[in-house]
Amino acid sequence: MRKDLLIGTHVSISGGLHLACGRAASIGCTTMQVFTKNSSQWEGKPLADEDVENYKTALGKSRIDPVFAHASYLINLCAVNPAVLRKSRNALEDELRRCERLGLTGLIVHPGAHMGAGEQEGLQRVAGSLNEVHEETSRFQTLTVLETTAGQGSSLGYRFEHLRTIVESVAHRERMAVCIDTCHLFAAGYPIHTEAGWEQTIREFDMILGLSRLVAVHVNDSRKALGSRVDRHEHIGKGYIGLDGFRMLMNDPRFTNVPKILETEKSEDMHEDVENMDALRSLVA
Predict the structure, then answer these.
(1) Could you tell me the sign of the dihedral formed by the alpha carbons of 44, 49, 52, 55, in that order?
(2) CB neighbours (10 Å) of residue 61?
(3) 157-198 confidence digits (pLDDT tens)
(4) Domain boundaries, the chain
(5) Pairwise CA distance, residues 249 & 117, whole Å
(6) Cα angle for residues 147, 153, 158 (degrees, 5° grid)
(7) 265, 222 contact by CB (below 8 A)
(8) Where does 16-282 sit in CATH, by number?
(9) In whole numbers, what is the pLDDT of the chain averaged over residues?
(10) In a designed cystine with 201, which of 21, 78, 147, 190 is the match (CB 3.0 to 4.6 A)?
(11) How far apart are the first and last CA of the chain?
């Protein structure tokens, strides 16, 4: 069991993936999340052997482990438009290939938005997308990590049952994992800001999905109230969840070895990340 806290942030890859390692290490991260390409584009420049080597060398000089990637927000695995669905599946496959080459632990992706097709049809389409992509990337070690969502618009994944339906409909379940986002949970209606609500939520997660499938937590406060179904991240202790909610996360032994990754707004010098990580560390009893 690790003695150091697994805390990090989403780090910029500007100038090259390898530079993310130095940026993360410079502010004391022990885990991190990156994009492996420009997140606002469907296709990215292929990774050169030199890119991969430079990244692995830089990572080896740091204390950062594990590393996750976040998939492009363009991806919608249950898109009703056939062209968008095809682009989404191709993009996810490409990103998984990038992650596998880099040796990343998991690729975190939002399930998608059903766009009026209905939740059950949408969930089955997500599973179909994952099955297709997994067939094209057989024997990959990088996990496909579904993220909980706030349920904004027609987005799926705002209930644990949504993720269970997807996982149970995927052929290679051993490749599936889950990331919970504290802001998204709260906005979706899970009362993680109180002790009773936190315990109820985590027990429900364990019963429906199993804590063994949890590989990461996105640690974000919420600018919007409980059950708002609106996804707006806030700095730790500055939103509606408040410090007490994060105190329970940081002291829950079930989460000791689960990486906790910030996704809050930041300046180029990342001082906000330092402040947020200090706030989280200060909550540990």
Answers:
(1) negative
(2) 10
(3) 999 999 999 999 999 999 999 999 999 999 999 999 999 999
(4) 16-282
(5) 36
(6) 35
(7) no
(8) 3.20.20.150
(9) 97
(10) 190
(11) 18
